Amino acid sequence: MTLPPIREWWSELSLEARVDVLGDTAPHLGEGVREEIRTITGAVVGMTETLSDEDLDYARSAARAEVDAASTE
Predict the structure, then answer these.
(1) Residue-number span of the structural domain to which 37 is assigned
(2) Residues of the chain falling short of pLDDT 70
(3) CB 34 within 8 A of CB 21
């Protein structure tokens, strides 16, 4: 099983799932996150899927950009 590219699902994740992705268990994905990715992409996401360093960098940058955008509003 292969995790779909993060750019295909990151923006659709719930806030709770995003916090989980960037939390203490990173780069491992919890069941809730895997289920959301399945729902968003239709992909089969295995129990042992992990994010690459590149994916984690993308998620951190995207989260930072969202916080910055919200603070300027």
Answers:
(1) 6-71
(2) 1
(3) no
